[in-house]
Structure formats: C-alpha cells, structure tokens
Design brief:
345 residues; alpha/beta; Rossmann fold; six-stranded parallel β-sheet; six-stranded mixed β-sheet; 43% helix; disordered N terminus
C-alpha cells in the first residue's frame, strides 16, 4: 500500500501550492509569475521560476487561455518543407513567435487545394490557436480565391490570397525584372527563361515579369521552358537550350534549375559566361560555390517570415486592422556566371 501510495504521489502533478511552499512565497505570487504579469520583482520571479523547475510544475496553459483570452499559439499551414524558401521562412516565423512568447503548431498540407486549406484551417481552430499563417509554395490548383471561415487573424505568404486577407511576399516581379534587365544590359539580344511549374504562383509571376521586361525593350520573348524546380529538370532543359547557338543568356526561376542548366552547358562544351550567361533566383547559400559562381536574385526569406509574424501580432492586437499586401524587395547578386556575349563573327 505504501508503494502504491508513493506511485500515486509521483504521478500527481505539482501544484502552485507546491511551488509556493518551495519558494517561500504566496500562491498569489506564483500565479502572477505563471501568468506572465509584471507586478513581481525580478529576484522573486527568478526564485519562483527556479522552484517551478525544481518541483516540476507546469503552468496550465488552457486555464490561462480561458482567463486571459489567449492561447499563445500560432498555427502555420504549409504545403512543403522541401524548398529553401519555406524552410527559411518557417525558421523566421518560429524565431519571431518565440520572441513574442508564442509557440507554433505546424499543419502540413500535401495538396494545394481549396478543400485541403479549409480543412487544415478548421483543424487548427479546433486546436485553439490565436492566429494562422499560411505559407504557399504553389497557387491553388483550382485558381479560386481563398475563402476562410471568419474569426481568426490570418496572414498569407506567397500566394494570390484575394481580397480580405493580409499578404506578405517577395516582390517576384521585381526580381525577374532585375535578372532580365541585367542580361539585356550586358548586351544580350534576348533572354531565355527556364520557368517553374505552371501551378506555382511565384513561378508564374516571375515568368510574367520576364516576358513584360523583354516586351518593354522591344524584344519578342522566345519560347518559355517549364521545369519542376529540380536540378534534373534544369539539366534536361539545358541540354535542349545548349545545342542552340543563338541562346546566349538564360534566366532560371530558381538556383537548382540554374545549376542543372549549367551542368548541361558544360557537358556540351559551352563556356559560361563566354558562350552563355546564366542567372538564377533565390541566391541559395551554395550559389557562390557553383562553377562559375552563380549570379542570382536574392530573396529575403527571413524578412518575409518576420514581417508575416509581425503583421499577425498586429492583427491580434487590433482586430479592426485593415488587411494589406507587403512586398519584400529582392536584390540582384552579380557573380561570374553572367557577362557580355562574345562578338558575332
């Protein structure tokens, strides 16, 4: 019986009273510390926190949420963690959330459809979150605007969210224009584009800007080639483009496809940048280690994540805040993969 009683006592969760006895303070003081209130001096707060750790006390987050109307949890809906941008964006969201004393609940969605997003949104609301950030790698396949149930602040990253929702995104059009104008400024008569998948919102915006930049320069855009974001996809397209001597400048919609195209050009004996210049998009960490080092459009993914979290917190503080669209500027990083074309014989 003694052993059973001991087991039960071990299983019993530590209470505020346990913490108060250990710290030598009142239960009211422990409650203030547990609820994050400021009317406790620093030395007492540290003593109470040390006692919480010593006795194994865990504040009741659900009870605190019912009392103060906040769960201090942010939901994140994301289609994939395989892309560089999504990983860096999520890291920034987590960092900013932690600094604001919020935790994250990640809800992966395998299919970018309206029904899948709505279902993920519903599951997150059932799990008691204070706001939701939706990170899109691709646009909705059915091309409809997002219509989410009302009630929670929402920020959307990298998608056509339609009206009524706050959006934070890289300025895709600016980045594509920077890449295309750079190659034209070097003296190339045209720029070929290795685009991303047709379902991708960011890829379509980059492609539209590439086309518009050429047309503004009085140049008829050549045929566009769609890849799949992978090095292998860029390699296959590079083999096709590399056999055409008129192709002297290529803008790839991401660095992985640029790397694949460069591999194909090397195999075909085409010098980079002497015979063909290559510009990528993302400026991944490895871009400077390509041969030659890759000229690329740098996206500030961390700033996108930071601003998205900042926007969400602002909505939570002010439910009447009007949703807006925030575009984060890109920067062209020029390296040795781009240069002027060789004079024609």
């Amino acid at each position: 019986m003694t052993l059973m009683g001991t087991d039960r006592s071990r299983r019993r969760a530590a209470s505020m009273a346990d913490v108060a006895r250990h710290a030598g303070v009142s239960s009211q003081t422990v409650s203030r510390v547990a609820n994050g209130l400021n009317n406790v001096d620093q030395s007492t707060r540290e003593k109470v926190l040390a006692s919480m750790r010593a006795v194994g006390y865990r504040p009741n987050g659900a009870a605190r949420a019912l009392k103060y109307g906040r769960f201090h949890t942010i939901g994140v809906i994301m289609f994939t963690l395989e892309t560089l941008g999504n990983v860096r964006t999520l890291d920034a969201i987590a960092t900013e959330a932690g600094a604001a004393d919020y935790t994250l609940t990640l809800m992966p969605v395998p299919d970018p459809t309206m029904g899948a997003v709505s279902g993920a949104y519903r599951r997150l609301t059932e799990q008691a979150v204070d706001g939701i950030i939706i990170v899109f790698e691709a646009s909705l396949l059915d091309r409809v605007e997002i219509t989410l149930p009302p009630g929670l602040p929402v920020v959307v990253i990298d998608s056509n969210a339609g009206s009524g929702l706050a959006v934070v995104d890289t300025d895709q059009a600016l980045g594509a224009r920077q890449a295309t104008e750079h190659l034209l400024g070097l003296g190339h008569r045209n720029v070929w584009h290795i685009a991303g998948p047709t379902s991708s919102f960011s890829a379509s915006h980059r492609a539209e800007s590439w086309r518009a930049t050429l047309e503004r320069a009085g140049i008829e855009p050549p045929e566009m080639h769609h890849g799949d974001w992978t090095t292998e996809g860029g390699y296959r397209i590079g083999l096709e483009l590399g056999r055409r001597p008129e192709v002297t400048a290529v803008f790839a919609a991401n660095d992985q496809m640029a790397l694949g195209a460069m591999k194909a050009f090397h195999e075909l004996g085409r010098d980079i940048p002497g015979d063909v210049s290559v510009v990528g998009f993302d400026d991944m960490d490895e871009a400077r280690a390509f041969w030659p080092p890759l000229t690329s459009v740098r996206q500030n993914f961390r700033e996108v994540g930071r601003i998205a979290m900042e926007n969400l917190l602002a909505q939570m503080a002010d439910p009447d805040r009007a949703p807006d669209i925030t575009l984060i500027p890109t920067e062209l990083i020029v390296r040795e993969s781009s240069g002027p074309p060789r004079p024609r014989a």
